[in-house]
Amino acid sequence: MTAGMDLKSPRLCYIFMIVISVRLKLDIQVPEVSGAVHGLQITSTGPTSIEMASGGSVKLDCQFSLATQDAGPLDIEWSLQPSDNQREEKVSNGGHVGEFLNVILSSAMLRINRFIILYSGDRAYDDYYPALKGRVHFNSSDPKKGDASINLLTLQASDTGTYQCKVKKAPGIGSRKVLLTVMVRPSTPKCSTEGSTYIGDNVVLKCKSSDGTSPLQYIWDRISGNKLLPATAVTDPASGTISMRNASEAISGTYRCTAKNRVGTDECVLQLKVIQQPNTAGIIAGSVIGVLLLLLLIALILFCCCRARHRKKYEKEISYEIRMLCCLSSVLPYPDWDKGDYPQEPVSAPALSPPLLYFREDVPPPKSRISTARSFASAGSQRSSLGSMSPSNLHEYSKAQYDKVPSEEYDQPPSHAPLPPPSRMAGPNLN
Known about the structure:
InterPro entries: EJ_Adhesion_Regulator, Ig-like_dom, Ig-like_dom_sf, Ig-like_fold, Ig_sub, Ig_sub2, Ig_V-set
CATH class of the largest domain: Mainly Beta
Shape: elongated
Number of strands: 18
Largest sheet: 6 strands, mixed
GO molecular function: cell adhesion molecule binding
Radius of gyration: 57 Å
Membrane topology: Single-pass type I membrane protein
Number of domains: 3
Pfam families: Ig_3, V-set
Subcellular location: Basolateral cell membrane; Cell junction, Adherens junction; Cell junction, Tight junction
Mean pLDDT: 72
């Protein structure tokens, strides 16, 4: 039988059946001789199934005794068998022939075992299984004295399996199996609520651990008030939920969830507060009003910005036209109106006194520079009507004045307005 042979092949199964039948016949036909001296025996009586928490340590017991006829070298083997190969091997003491056939029967199974530690030639070898290297050692410093037990340290979930202790000292052979289950303690569960917690609704509390070996069980209890769960509460220990129908303020309080398995427990706490359902219509109305107020504020800010910009532009126009009037008043002749120095002929633009324009309070602000020029002409015509100026003269004066004002000067900004020569500058006539 080769190592690469499929253990599920019909031929191999047929061979196993023949060996088993021969083994059973030998057990029946070779009775135990009364008073016979037995050979090597496993004397451990401890449990054959152990459950431990991850991170801990465990001792796998394997005590043995030798007989005087066991004179061969002592060999101790510890192996880890797959979890699906947990059949209990019965060691018969009916004779060495039966023991030999029993070893042949189990030799095929040992091909898939993982040796984790050996003792041979008065020396221990613990580097056969890398996953347990540094975490397994013999319990006794001298196993040949009858203690083949081993200790496993810092247990992990992957250490779960069936461990077999085999002691051989020719012609005696003995073995023992121990099923070790390494379980992970539940991690700290997370408590939460599902859905709303308003009065009249169905409130659901959830509890879940992210880690832990199954089966996990969840237990809910109340640690505030009367410490009793509501009468309408329905719990599910497997899923970790508790449902309470038609919730009221009376079920408000502090709840605790405990997650546990066979090797450990952990818990979480949840504060439940059942409140009145808020007024949805009021919330919507308030939101709409808030949005409208925000839009109104934005519109007001934009209006103020536009108004300030328009006012700045208007002030620039007035400043420019005042500068133009000052320049004209300093270079044009000023008639003496008090002495009757009225022009007898149609006056031209230089004969008009600009100071009259400064004291007009009934003239509205000009819309443009052209309208300002027309305002100047209108003011001059009204002032001349007090003297000997006729309407015909006023008409000719206004027309001549508009014809003499080049439009390019009104379109120039204040920085480009033409200035008179310095030699002709003079202050305005205050009379």
